[in-house]
Design a protein that fits this description.
This protein is an all-alpha fold. It is 63% helix and 1% strand. It contains 22 helices and two strands. Strands 1-2 form a two-stranded antiparallel ribbon. A hairpin with a 2-residue loop joins strand 1 and strand 2. The protein is globular and about 65 Å long.
Length: 483
């Protein structure tokens, strides 16, 4: 393990992260909301820590190895979450404990959207901007952003990219060079953000609300500038804009890139995961809307259909926006939506969950095993489209699923041991490990009422979900640390 190289990179990345304090600092200075000093101090503290880490090992120029990449990713996300809590901890308008500040910061960076804050409408504009800024940076992964910059600093980025990129297939690149790949991802991400902000603004939001909600929509984060989330605006046009961009952000960005480069939208229709993604959403939308109408939850059909579609897309893509109290919907609907969040968005998107492609492969593998019971000697390949999937990929998907179930069960039992009831513990674990946000029971509105141990356990769940289980778990194995 090349600890000097790891320390140098962490120092550089923290120094770069300190720059994120400047936009809210400018907003605080412009709006005179009393938080300028908090962001200035946070900027100086994070920059100083980064410089202190970097300076003693600044001449370590060795090539970054794959194992080093995993350590950098995990330590940086953990360090970033703690560093991001500094301005929240300093702000007198919040009066947060260290646990609450770290929870809010980690939730933002992992695009979970779970919050411990109440009275969001009354928060200073600088704090509101900062929360959404963290989600926007976390959406595609701040490591990927850094990869585009690190070559200029003499650091190779491929190991970081492989450790950071979500999805079951991590070795595919959009362009031959990793730097160009990271830039392509961020150009797409930035373009979608701008388009979303303009759409929100034209639909009736203020410019400030439009920009911030575009951050949390494209990142599939779910933070809002209001306690009532998107429901605050009471506008079906704004709801429609949110649904469209949540759908787009939940699609594999590789598909977006190839469709944009070739100018051929039919690229999407040739992708098995994209078609499965739409089918799942359509089926769940139909069930939710139909049951809301059947139970007469709303006075007219159009309202039931609007809320049914919005909440399905929001929860299924793990965004977490709300226009209605879905946790109060009758019978099985709230649990259905929680279970849909386990599937999540597509691989290579900004969403969480198991990812649609993994669920598709698990389903195909299960169907193959049933067929083999009838035809034991048959050779039945698993295909995505017309291409057979390698058995090694199938095995890795099953391994991921097994690890996911074990980690989920472990966190669930520990949460119940801290005193949480079954519904709260189950939904909180699901919401955090799937990076979705709102849960059921005591966490349907916010997470502020949980005990500190539960909050730290959920921070772990958010991180392990964001880093796709294995990236973090591999550091806990003795094999990883052997020479």
């Amino acid at each position: 393990m090349q600890f000097a190289v790891i320390q140098r990179i962490l120092g550089l990345l923290l120094a770069l992260f300190s720059i994120t304090m400047l936009p809210p600092l400018l907003i605080a200075w412009w709006s005179q909301d009393g938080t300028a000093f908090d962001f200035l101090m946070a900027f100086l503290i994070i920059l100083t820590v980064g410089t202190v880490l970097w300076f003693p090992v600044r001449r370590s120029q060795k090539e970054l190895r794959l194992r080093d990449g995993f350590v950098v990713v995990v330590l940086f996300w953990l360090g970033l979450g703690l560093a991001g809590s500094i301005p929240l901890l300093l702000s007198e308008s919040l009066t947060m404990s260290f646990t609450d500040a770290a929870f809010e910061s980690i939730s933002a960076l992992t695009t979970t959207g779970a919050t411990v804050i109440t009275g969001i409408d009354a928060l200073p504009k600088s704090v509101l901007f900062y929360r959404h800024e963290l989600q926007w940076l976390g959406g595609m992964g701040i490591i990927v952003l850094a990869v585009a910059i690190l070559p200029m600093l003499g650091i190779g980025g491929m190991q970081l990219y492989r450790a950071e990129t979500p999805g079951p297939i991590k070795d595919s690149k959009l362009t031959p060079r990793i730097t160009e790949t990271a830039k392509a991802l961020w150009y797409l991400y930035l373009s979608l953000t701008i388009a979303c902000a303009i759409s929100y603004w034209l639909a009736g939001m203020t410019l400030f609300d439009a920009i911030l909600h575009s951050f949390s929509t494209v990142s599939i984060g779910g933070f809002s500038t209001h306690d009532l989330s998107i429901g605050y605006f009471n506008s079906r046009l704004i709801d429609a804009v949110a649904v469209v961009f949540m759908l787009i952000a939940g699609v594999n960005f590789t598909l977006h890139f190839f469709a944009w480069r070739s100018m051929k939208p039919d690229v999407y229709w040739h992708d098995s995961e994209f078609k499965a993604y739409l089918r799942i959403l359509l089926v769940v939308c139909f069930i939710c809307c139909g049951y809301l109408i059947y139970e007469n939850v709303y006075t007219d059909y159009s309202t039931a259909i609007t809320h049914g579609i919005f909440q399905t897309i929001s929860i299924a893509t793990t965004t977490g926006f709300t226009t209605a109290s879905y946790q109060d919907w009758p019978n099985f609907l709230p649990v259905l939506l929680i279970f849909v969040s386990f599937i999540g968005a597509c691989a290579g998107s900004t969403g969480g969950g198991l990812k649609v492609i993994r669920v598709v492969l698990l389903f195909k593998q299960g169907r193959r095993e049933i067929k083999k019971l009838v035809h034991p000697n048959a050779i039945i390949p698993i295909k995505l489209g017309d291409k057979p999937v390698q058995e090694s990929i199938i095995n890795s998907v099953w391994g991921f699923f097994a690890a996911y179930i074990v980690v989920f069960t472990f966190i669930l039992l520990l949460l119940m041991a801290t005193g949480l009831d079954q519904i709260t513990a189950f939904s909180a674990t699901a919401a955090c490990i799937n990076n979705m946000g709102p849960g059921l029971g005591d966490v349907s509105a916010h997470y502020g009422g949980l005990n500190d141990i539960a909050k730290w356990l959920l921070c772990f769940a958010m991180l392990i979900g964001r880093l796709e289980i294995f990236t973090l778990l591999v550091l806990l194995t003795p094999t990883f640390w052997r020479k």
